[in-house]
Amino acid sequence: MTPEVTVVGAGLAGCEAAWQLAQRDFRVRLYEMKPKKMSPAHHSADFAELVCSNSLRGDRLENAVGLLKEELRRLGSLILSCADETRVEAGGCLAVDRFGFSALVTQRIREHPLITLVSEELKQMPAAPAIVATGPLTSDALSEAISQYFGSAQYLHFFDAAAPLVTRESIDMDKAWFASRYDRGTADYINCAMDREEYVAFVRELASAEEAQVHGFEDAKVFEGCMPVEVMARRGEDTLRYGPLKPVGLPDPKTGKTPYAVVQLRRDNAAGNIYNIVGFQTHLRFPEQKRVFSMIPALKNAEFVRYGVMHRNTFLHSPTLLDASYADRRNPGIAFAGQMTGVEGYVESCASGFLAAVCMAARLRGMELPDFGDTTAIGALAQYISDQSVRSFQPMNINFGILAPLEQRIKGKANKNLAIANRSLERIEQLRNEGKL
Known about the structure:
There is one protein chain. By secondary structure, this protein is of the alpha/beta class. It folds into two domains: about 5-160 and about 310-435, FAD/NAD(P)-binding domain (3-Layer(bba) Sandwich), CATH 3.50.50.60; about 165-305, Elongation Factor Tu (Ef-tu), domain 3 (Beta Barrel), CATH 2.40.30. It contains twelve helices and 16 strands. Strands 10-11-12-13-9-14 form a six-stranded antiparallel beta sheet. Strands 6-2-1-7-16 form a five-stranded parallel beta sheet, covered by helices on one side. A three-stranded antiparallel beta sheet has the order 3-5-4. The longest helix has 21 residues, at about 415-435. The relative contact order is 0.17.
């Protein structure tokens, strides 16, 4: 009889971990507090809810997150399988129907015969073997229990923000057009142009707009990878024009000229009737969001079906606490996964859940742990969060900079990245062929 493993949290990491353990014939008890208790950022009772964007980012091998997705696909990831089945067109990105994706993950988890669901909030640390994947919105009770478990306040925290959603029919297409940057992939983004006068006025109002009250919020605590748009506006007039409003590669087909600034909208559901304002994470008051974002010419009469929201993200100081299998250095029968470990992003969270589960399964069977090393994206990410030499630990998206460099020199960034990706996938196939997964 294999032991039952407890998994806490049915987000992306928790669902992936539960699935991988069950696929390896372990019984899993999966705790999820929704729908009995909801965090401020959650709206659906389904698992693997996408709180912020509906995009899993780039899907090319020359892109680090594209490589990470391909590794997970080849390894039988539940999350990637469901994402591919519910994808919506988004140029070179993998975007999904937000609700269809979560519903499919929920269905697969509920139907697995070895996964038992417990719909309640766990307020204390589970006994080993267990994987805790309660995410950046871990409840106060469990957060306190984790802090006591480690014997000190080893949590850090920052603030994360979600972008607003608008209806497709309320966008003025006389002042917008469909295109993908540099015509890569299909023309899946709605592009809303702004001239210099419109842009300057918009930035001025955005920088001075009234924010919602969020206890403890300071600009210094905003994670750079998911910064509220109003914080960017306060950093300088051109900050947005070199960030999410960058017009490069998006000429206006009506004039043939590149606008001064461009706001992009990405389809948020399969029906194509709801769009996400790309890069517009915010914690402005709702009336202020309506007022300021309606200054974008194509969004003058936009109908907002969801306003942006601000919420707290919490994560462990993983380098001092966790090893490269996401397990407690003192007690490897307890592991953690997801954004609470300091990986940043949907796909990265999924990868951490996968690796934590695979290593937990090997450990429980007395087998050698699979060595992904730093030549794979999955392994490099795990090594980053467990690197004890990191002094100022901050959440990290996958990037080629944390993978081992190539032994030979290759000209061109894209060619070099592709060579790194091919080396990584060869290692993944080697691990699969050796039966170590």
